[in-house]
Request: fold
Amino acid sequence: MKQLFLLEDDLSLINGLSFAIKKQGYEIVIARTTLEADALWTNGKYDLVILDVSLPDGSGFDFCKKIRQTSKVPIMFLTAADEETDIIMGLDIGGDDYITKPFKLAVLMSRINALLRRSENFNTNTTELNSNGINIMLLKGEVYKKGKLIELTASEYKLLCLFMENPDRILSSEQILSKLWDCNENYIDNNSLTVYIRRLRTKIEDNPGEPKRIVTVRGMGYKWSTID
Reply:
């Protein structure tokens, strides 16, 4: 049974989410403060993490950063902080989805299920991918740049695998979204994809401002260039 971790201080919201999540057949572990979250968090134990941003004793952003030091578990922000800068920050520091309050419960559960599917169904028959100094050890879920281990979020890892599995092939935004983020559910847009790609470039490119690996093909999409 899949286990979800919820960091949220609103008791009425906790009760509603707990009921809906358990109805889907999932278990849920709840923390109402970052102090409680620190005590309950176990690396690798949970299948999905849902974080509020504003908490009585800290920020969900800070807890997200802590998780990303050791885990690629899917992370969803569920918060009233709806400024564009907040959304970009949430995605930049490793969030996989960002939902603003108020929200419809059915939509939230759909997005939770989609995140779990992405994490579960992203498979490949090969065990290693190599190109332009980037090496992906698929069985271990590790990525190396010129022999040095680099830390990627789950979404960044999946995006990089998709590019490297399709070398020198132009992938449209729609193709990328359909492979990774179920774009038919109409909640991930091109602006979010742009953030993910920019974030990935900062980790794998020698000069993110002039990318040589993940190249933008104007009016068409992106491609992984094997030309060094």
